[in-house]
Amino acid sequence: MTGRLVAEPSPVTIDPAAKQGTWDGWGTSLCWWAAVFGDRTDLADAMFTTKTVQVENEQLPGLGLNIVRYNAGASAWRKIGEREMKKSRIIQRHRQMEGFWLDDRSSDPASDSWDWSVDAKQRNMLKLAKERGVTHFELFSNSPMWWMTRNDNPSGGPKPSDDNLSPQQERNFAIYLAAVAREAKDDWGISFTSVSPFNEPVSDWWFADCKQEGCHVSPPQQARVLPLLREQLDKQGLKSLPISASEETYYDHAISTWQSFDAKTRSLIGQVNVHGYQEAKGDRAKLYRLVHQEGGKRLWNSEYGDGDPSGLQMARNLHRDLATLKPTSWSYWQPIDGGGWGLISGDLPRGRLRRVNPKWHVLAHYTRNIPPGSTILTTGEESIVASFQEKRGRLVIVSLNDGDTERERQIDLSRFKGSRLTATGWVTEPQGSSRYQALENVATQGKQVTLRQPKKSVETVVVDGLSG
């Protein structure tokens, strides 16, 4: 390392008693990338195992994701009388996710109004994920089937502020999601662990010529759909399958939607999902308080994405989430996407991979080293994420230095028990050459660990031999 070291004025003390919650895991959505690459076993290995995997010409550390989010599509090309699906002028084919309920003649999933053979690649990646040990499967919807919308367009209404789910189709929408969950359990070998009916529903960018499928659903309409969905899930014998909602884009949207629901409506929601696109803004702490006042509900950041290929912006917002929102899982939207949005940059319309962004290796620090079942510890320092696996005696410290100078930081572990400590670590420098590179040595003295961290980097240290 070169450059000036800036010493922190005081050490960061990590306390095993400062328990923040048990970690459920790390995840990703399968649409849209799996609709293109759903037959690629190398990509399944890279995302859902921790093996070293060759993708194209590059060796990648497997991310070990354990959560996948399967999208129930909204698009179909069968006409209903003179009606046919209206298509946004700018939507790309791989963003038109194929739906199973093709027309409104019959609600019986065994009838020819339904086609369970569509969406083969996304379903295949779902199977590959399960074979590699994924434990959580979430069914989610970007839009109801096209013919359930007011204007036959699954990208949104004429005005982005208008609800586009037809009120007359609210029950059919619930029937659709419940039928997909039942079919998955019976024929795909997939038992969904939650079902999410809305996607960024109060945001005002779902309109007829949008780039993807989407649907504005106001809080009053959400409150009408939720009991219908619960009723249909129960009818399908899925009484233990929780509903997650409302997948709002921003933390502040999630707060206003949650506060609009009465107690009975909130009781229908077993898991609160929010997206992280408000980045540095939004009242994360208030959302955390509101959800935990209800008791027994999970809080997940179920979708985050940004266009920075370095991964530093992603890491910055991930640290903000873990420090203040305190979710028990975190998912990245599109692992393969154009430019800096993907962990791997890809040309999805042509089915090609371009390059691996440093963002892949940055995310690997978290997903490979903080497994499900870990206890997240509150550190009091946003740039330091810590997790503890008490049975293994393992503490994981992930440090973000997004500054312009190298940094030295003292980590005080005096509140842990244990005397023979060993430490290993890795570093990624997106603006340099290090990509999840093993550290030659980690300085420890007694129960103090010294982190010497390059500028603009993410560094992980794993300390073994501790007890709480």
UniProtKB/TrEMBL annotation:
<protein>
    <submittedName>
        <fullName>Glycoside hydrolase</fullName>
    </submittedName>
</protein>
<dbReference type="Pfam" id="PF14587">
    <property type="entry name" value="Glyco_hydr_30_2"/>
</dbReference>
<feature type="domain" description="Endo-beta-1,6-galactanase-like">
    <location>
        <begin position="12"/>
        <end position="250"/>
    </location>
</feature>
<dbReference type="InterPro" id="IPR013780">
    <property type="entry name" value="Glyco_hydro_b"/>
</dbReference>
<keyword id="KW-0378">Hydrolase</keyword>
<dbReference type="InterPro" id="IPR039743">
    <property type="entry name" value="6GAL/EXGAL"/>
</dbReference>
<dbReference type="InterPro" id="IPR017853">
    <property type="entry name" value="GH"/>
</dbReference>
<dbReference type="GO" id="GO:0016787">
    <property type="term" value="F:hydrolase activity"/>
</dbReference>
<dbReference type="InterPro" id="IPR039514">
    <property type="entry name" value="6GAL-like"/>
</dbReference>
